[in-house]
Amino acid sequence: MRPVKALILDLDGLILDTECLCVEVAREIVARHGKQLTLEAQRVALGKRPHECWSDVAKVLGIEVSAEQLLAESEPLLAARWAHAPLLPGALRLVRHLAACRIPFAVATSTPRATFAAKMSLKDELRGLLAERPGAVVVCGDEVDRGKPHPDVFLEAARQLGVAPEGCLVLEDAPSGVEGSAALSGYRRL
């Protein structure tokens, strides 16, 4: 087995506790359409780009409106919450350690770039550690052709880090992200 040369980290559910915010908003939105958010709907949406999340939720729950409409309803509710999403225990410590030890790392997220900026707005230290500098990159879901479970965001992160995919270790919590990293020959994931 080749040595690990870089880490690729997911953002939501691994660094930031945003998933509880998403579930809270999703419950409110689906209730407007006479439905109840199920665990299955949450499972199929977890880790995907926003439009794909809502498309999957609508399909699972039988909501007869477009993903675009559901996304438009949810965006203002989420925008008011993003900046207040707490860091998960140990996340800042991990990123500090990677930066201090000059270990190349990337954040590979389904989150669009503008939403990423909103999530980081009150997290000065984390934002500084993730700023464009040698050894740290951020790749967002709207910067690649296909979102998770496709491997595009991981491939782009490896490319920007200058490390072959088989030299990367992916830390991911969502089934779609695990599937995306598994689709790559040689990727290791936790």
TrEMBL record:
InterPro entries: HAD-like_sf (IPR036412), HAD-SF_hydro_IA (IPR006439), HAD_sf (IPR023214), PGP-like_dom2 (IPR023198). It comes from the Eukaryota. GO terms for molecular function: sn-glycerol 3-phosphatase activity. It comes from Volvox reticuliferus. GO terms for biological process: glycerol biosynthetic process. SUPFAM superfamilies: HAD-like. This is Uncharacterized protein. Signal peptide: none annotated.
